[in-house]
Amino acid sequence: MAGVDFLTMEYFTSSPCKNDKIGSMEDWRTFLANYPCKRYEKGQLIVCQDTSPNCCYVIKSGFVKTYLITAEGNEKPLSFEARNDFFPVDTTFGHSEEARYFYEAYTDCEIYQIPRAEYVKFINDHPRIFTRLFHYLIKRTLDYHEHISSLEQAKAVDKLICALHLLVKRFGKQVAKSRAHMTLPLTQQDLANFLGLTRETTGTQLKALEREGILQYHRQKYVIHTDRLATLVEER
C-alpha cells in the first residue's frame, strides 16, 4: 500500500505495456528537469487564495496543505498533496483565473514551477501520460467524495474512521501484513479541522481506536491496522 500519483499508477488499459510505462516516466522526468525547483519551508505560503498564479506547481518532495479560511476565521483543510501531485488544478487548465484556495508547505518541500501553457501542452502531446492523468484525477475525485462522506457522518468516531480509511489509502506505506504507516505527518489539530471536530474530541476518539487495536499513534506518526479499519468501515 502506498500513496498513488499519476506517474506511478498502473495504466487503466486492457493490456498495459511495461516499456510504455517506463518511457512515460522517463519523458515526465526529462520534462520536469527543464524547470526550476524551488524549496519551501514548512508553513510557507506557496499560493494565496484569489491570486492568479502563472505556474503549475508539481511537488518533487514533501507535503502541501490545501485549505480555505471560513467566514468565522477558522482554517479548513480540504486536502493534502504529495509527490507528483500538482496544483492549482483549476487555474492550470484554465477553469479559473484565480486560485480558490490557499496552498501551504505542510512540511519542507521541493516544488517545480512550470508555466501553465507548457504543462498543458506536454500533457496533450503525450497521450499515455494524458491517460494516466485522466485516471489519476478520477481517483482524486473519488477521494473528495469519500471525504464528503466522512463529514456527513453523525458521530465523531465514524467521521474519524472514514477519514483514516481515506488517508491511509492515499498516504499509507505498508510495513507489515495488514499494517501501514501513514507517511503524512498529520497533527491532531489538522485532523480535527479536516473533520470539523474539536482537537479534544479528535484526541478522545483516537485514544478509543487505539484501545480497540485499530491504530497506534505518537505525535504525528500513525500506524494503522488496515484490516481492522476496513472492517469498521464496512460495518458503517
Whole-number radius of gyration? 18 Å
Written as H for each helix and E for each strand, in order along the chain, the element string is HEEEEEEHEEHHHEEHHEEH
Structural class from helices and strands? Answer: alpha+beta
Q: Numbering strands along the chain, what is their spatial order in the largest sheet?
A: 1-8-3-6
Strand percentage: 15-25%
Major sheet details: 4 strands, antiparallel
Q: Which whole number gives the mean pLDDT?
A: 90
Helicity, in percent? 40-55%
How many β-strand runs? 12
First-last Cα distance: 23 Å
* Helix segment tally: 8
Low-confidence stretches: 9-19
Which term fits the overall shape?
globular
Explain the overall architecture.
The chain has about 240 residues and is α+β, with helices and mostly antiparallel strands. It contains eight helices and twelve strands. The chain has helices at about 20-30, 90, 115-125, 125-150, 155-170, 190-195, 200-210, 225-235, and strands spanning about 35-40, 45, 55-60, 65-70, 75-80, 85, 100-105, 110-115, 170-175, 180, 215-220, 220-225. The chain has a four-stranded antiparallel β-sheet. The two termini are about 25 Å apart. The model is unreliable at about 10-20 (pLDDT under 50).
Task: List the main descriptive attributes of the protein structure presented here.
43% helix, four-stranded antiparallel beta sheet, 12 strands, alpha+beta, 236 residues, single chain
Ordered list of secondary-structure elements with their pairings:
Blueprint lengths: L17 H15 L4 E4 L4 E3 L7 E7 L2 E6 L5 E7 L4 E2 L1 H4 L9 E4 L3 E7 H10 L1 H26 L3 H16 E5 L2 E4 L5 H8 L3 H13 L3 E4 L2 E5 H10 L1
Antiparallel strand pairs: 1-8, 2-7, 3-6, 3-8, 4-5, 4-7, 9-10, 10-12, 11-12
